[in-house]
């Protein structure tokens, strides 16, 4: 046997020992029910989500308030600057009653549409919440049904094997 063969045999022997040690370590490793692991990790994620939702809601509310403030300031600033230009240029800004009434009517209609939209959105949220509640209420029924199916299949499987 030459030096290369000796080295190759030593390397092969080392690999076999390492593989054996790895197998023994895996056999000595403790085990845990996979479903318990899944449930535990789901509970961790759900807990994290539950903690972050109030932060999201607060961030959204703060963003919304800042947006509305900016919108308000922008529109009033635009009206003020246009009013200044009109005054400096001597433009008559008086409008006939029919124009004013039309603008007021359009504004009232926009508000009515927004109120209808708000009611539709609220109704959609209420219906969705009710559907989720119904699913939640029926989880036990679905679980019992699945348990019955699993028991039936397992009994058939056991009798055939």
Folded structure, characterized:
91% of the residues lie in helices and 0% in strands. The chain is mainly alpha-helical. The longest helix is centred in the C-terminal third of the chain and has 64 residues.
Give the termini distance in whole angstroms.
Answer: 54 Å
Contiguous helical run count: 3
Helix content: over 70%
Query: Order of helices and strands, N to C?
Result: HHH
- Category by helix and strand content: mainly alpha
Outline the low-pLDDT stretches: none
Shape: elongated
Q: Number of folding domains?
A: 2
Rounded mean pLDDT score: 88
Fraction of residues in β-strands: under 5%
Largest sheet: none
Strand tally: 0
Radius of gyration: 36 Å
Summed up, what is this model?
91% of the residues lie in helices and 0% in strands.
Could you list some keywords that capture this structure?
mainly alpha
Write the layout of secondary structure elements.
Elements: H1 3-28, H2 34-89, H3 97-160
């Amino acid at each position: 046997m030459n030096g290369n063969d000796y080295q190759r045999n030593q390397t092969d022997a080392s690999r076999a020992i390492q593989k054996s040690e790895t197998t023994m370590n895996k056999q000595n490793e403790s085990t845990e029910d996979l479903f318990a692991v899944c449930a535990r990790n789901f509970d961790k994620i759900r807990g994290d989500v539950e903690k972050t939702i109030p932060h999201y809601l607060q961030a959204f509310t703060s963003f919304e308030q800042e947006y509305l403030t900016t919108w308000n300031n922008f529109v009033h600033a635009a009206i003020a600057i246009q009013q200044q230009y009109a005054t400096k240029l001597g433009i008559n800004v008086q409008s006939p009653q029919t124009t004013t009434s039309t603008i007021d009517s359009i504004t009232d209609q926009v508000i009515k549409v927004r109120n209808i939209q708000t009611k539709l959105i609220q109704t959609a949220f209420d219906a969705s919440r009710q559907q989720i509640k119904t699913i939640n209420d029926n989880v036990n029924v679905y679980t019992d049904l699945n348990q019955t199916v699993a028991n039936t299949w397992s009994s058939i499987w056991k009798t055939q094997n």
